[in-house]
């Protein structure tokens, strides 16, 4: 049997009697609890590492999509330039036809 004095504050002391076997059991339970908490923290750390890797892959994918969109935008610019040239040719052709029609 262990007898100890516990300071309660405010000038009060309390006498405590404790069985060493119970104290050992409590310490064992606390140790097991801390081991489980540490294991949970390790799993959380591994999960965060996995999430970081997933985010890195998502960022790389977004970068590739941005590059693809840049290529599509360049293609659309080329199509617009071709359309403008065709419109110019069509305007010249219509002008030529209008001039011929006036001459006849």
Structural summary, described in words:
The longest helix is centred in the middle third of the chain and has 84 residues. The protein starts with a strand and ends with a helix. The protein has a two-stranded antiparallel ribbon with strand order 1-2. By secondary structure, it is of the alpha+beta class. The chain has 1 helix and 2 strands; from the N terminus they run E-E-H. Strand 1 and strand 2 form a beta hairpin.
* Total count of helical runs of at least 4 residues: 1
* Residues in helix, %: over 70%
Measured by DSSP, the beta-strand proportion falls in 5-15%
Described by its quaternary structure, the protein is: single chain
Largest sheet composition: 2 strands, antiparallel
Order of helices and strands: EEH
* Overall morphology: rod-shaped
Average pLDDT, rounded to a whole number, is 86
What's the structural blueprint in terms of helices and strands?
Elements: E1 2-9, E2 12-18, H1 20-103
Antiparallel strand pairs: 1-2
Structural features:
81% helix; two-stranded antiparallel ribbon; 104 residues; alpha+beta; 1 helix; 2 strands; 14% strand
In short:
With 104 residues, the chain is an alpha+beta fold. The chain has 1 helix and 2 strands; from the N terminus they run E-E-H.
